[in-house]
């Protein structure tokens, strides 16, 4: 099983996260921000990645540190679970429809973190989550997971649907990218020989 546990403690947050890339989408998520919990649940369920995530953050200030640090820890756990990345497909993409919304997500587990974000919101909050933090979550996750990540909302009007389509698209693209390719299960998927 490709799994990892990260314990991250700062003056702003305490985080315990365990991931299993070869899971079935079982999750236990508690960040203290209900809408964020719902989105990480989507990542787990649709990515078939088991995720156990517990966050104790300084929510009396705002959600910024909780959102950022949880994404950093989750990305770090994914990177650690991937190990040397031997045998993975490396690339993944997904079109993610949700009612009136359609989002495209493409990623490369390249070791070169990058985020291209072409998504906008018309409200400042969804539940207890500031919508400006959603891009920051994706950026932080991409940084520590070591992935090049492109997220583009092609169209949509309901802000909840726009965010959920992005997380579900990430889930489906990540699921494809971390999958072991039976034709190259013993090889690093790079001409450099390392990712």
Please describe what this structure looks like.
The chain is an alpha+beta fold and 195 residues long. A four-stranded mixed β-sheet has the order 1-2-4-3, covered by helices on one side. 43% of the residues are buried. The mean pLDDT is 97.
Quick overview of this protein structure:
The chain is built from four helices and ten strands, in the order βββαβαβββββαβα. With 195 residues, the protein is an alpha+beta fold.
Rg for CA atoms: 16 Å
Q: Percent range for helical residues?
A: 25-40%
Mean of pLDDT: 97
Helix and strand element order = EEEHEHEEEEEHEH
What count of helical segments does DSSP give? 4
The N- and C-terminal alpha carbons lie at a distance of 20 Å
Low-confidence stretches: none
- Number of extended strands: 10
Percentage of residues in strands:
25-35%
Query: Mind summarizing the main beta sheet?
Result: 4 strands, mixed
Side by side, the strands of the main sheet go 1-2-4-3
**Helix-strand category:** alpha+beta
Net shape? globular
Protein name: Imidazoleglycerol-phosphate dehydratase
Family: Belongs to the imidazoleglycerol-phosphate dehydratase family.
Keywords: Amino-acid biosynthesis, Cytoplasm, Histidine biosynthesis, Lyase
Enzyme class: lyase
Structure keywords:
195 residues, alpha+beta, four-stranded mixed sheet, 10 strands, 34% helix
